[in-house]
Write a structure and sequence with these properties.
The protein has eleven helices and 15 strands. By secondary structure, the chain is an alpha+beta fold. GO terms for molecular function: ATP binding; protein serine/threonine kinase activity.
Length: 380
């Protein structure tokens, strides 16, 4: 399944409270103001309307150095993401030596999917403020080529997907403490989306949508598939299933019914990826292991030893009891019955408990280096 989105109309009227371009008297907002956003321990807030800077296409050309190929950070189905620099206070284009780094996503306005993603990002991320949601700083929707652009804070560590599944280079194996930190932070972001004052179904929770800052604090990104409501145990009914294969809840795939608890299933899949270091679906694995959830069930349900499940790159350096509790939590999140899955508030509480109790659990001792003399074969 890809990011298939319903059709959209014209871009929405600019919802921002600030202007760009020349002239005085405009309201100025800065990146510095975002540092006053909710702290990591708070629950975030919802604004009545988006508060975003409206950029011109000329400004974003300057920000990204003309959208040069060497500025490309990544590329998706609906466009590219470029690296750029803006002034810390005015968000105007700046030199790399004087500005702060931002990420500029350039979407294809001719595609229905690109337009819908642009609208969703502005309408959702423009109003939501939470330490575990990526910050949308502004947008542009009036280019001569009908380009649609979005400007975000830059996340220097990239995506969780890269750190879990890419080998070599600058990607070192994530420690147990870092994995638990990422799981807890992502859970807080999802719990905020599900809160009564927000009531948003994220619908595309996966490792590639979890971005990491310089300290590996996670933030949810890409709200192109997000939907408002419904509350409690009610569901959306869609005629076209959207999301990513391996992460979508079984009831959604089978019936098109989308619940808040469908997001919880996706979280369970990512938690399983954090434990195993394996992708949710990998056709290159043996047939019985291609689907991570099905292969892992005997382990997380308690039928097999957990050591056979854990990421080998952890080299046994994790508290066994904490890992067992995390596996049991993943099992609950992956329950076939949506009603039996925990709420994300419950998931956050459980992960915080695992972290607190796990800090008291001792790590297995690291194996001692074998003396060189003892390593020699007696047959040489």
């Amino acid at each position: 399944m890809g990011n298939c989105l319903r059709s959209g109309g014209k871009p929405p009227s600019p919802p921002a409270t600030r202007e760009s371009g020349g002239g005085g008297g405009r309201e100025e907002e800065s990146l510095a103001s975002y540092r006053g956003w909710p702290s990591a321990g708070s629950g975030g807030r919802v604004l009545d309307a988006p508060r975003l800077r409206v950029f011109t296409l000329a400004e974003l050309r300057a920000v990204t150095r003309g959208f040069k190929p060497e500025m490309v950070l990544g590329e998706g189905g609906f466009g590219r993401v470029y690296k750029g620099w803006v002034d810390d206070r005015t968000l105007h284009p700046a030199k790399s030596s004087a500005g702060v780094v931002v990420a500029v996503k350039r979407l294809n306005a001719e595609s229905v999917q690109g337009l819908q993603e642009w609208q969703s990002e502005v309408n959702f991320l423009g109003r939501l403020q939470h330490p575990n949601l990526v910050r949308l700083l502004g947008y542009c929707g009036d280019g001569e080529d009908r380009d649609l652009l979005l400007v975000y804070e830059f996340m220097p560590k990239g995506s969780l997907e890269n750190h879990l599944f890419r080998r070599g280079g600058s990607f070192e194996p994530l420690s147990w403490a870092t994995r638990l930190k990422i799981a807890a932070g992502a859970a807080r972001g999802l719990a905020f989306l599900h809160s009564p004052e927000t009531q948003i179904i994220y619908r595309d929770f996966k490792a590639s949508n979890i971005l990491l800052d310089h300290d590996f604090a996670p933030k949810l990104s890409d709200f192109g598939l997000a939907k408002s409501g419904p509350a409690a145990g009610r569901s959306h009914v869609t005629t076209r299933v959207m999301g990513s294969y391996g992460y979508a809840a079984p009831e959604y795939v089978a019936t098109g019914h989308l619940y808040v608890k469908s997001d919880v299933y996706g979280f369970g899949v990512v938690l399983l990826e954090l434990l195993t270091g394996l992708r949710a679906h990998d056709p290159n694995r043996p047939t019985h292991q291609a689907n991570l959830v099905e292969w892992a069930r005997p382990y997380i349900a308690g039928g097999r030893k957990l050591t056979g499940l854990m990421d080998q790159r952890l080299a046994g350096q994790y508290p066994p009891k904490a890992a067992l509790r995390a596996a049991r939590l993943a099992h609950r999140c992956l329950c076939g019955d949506p009603k039996a899955r925990p709420s994300m508030d419950d998931v956050v509480a459980k992960l915080e408990e695992i972290d607190a109790r796990g800090s008291r659990d001792s790590l297995p001792p690291r194996p001692r280096p074998v003396p060189a003399a003892a390593q020699r074969s007696p047959y040489r």
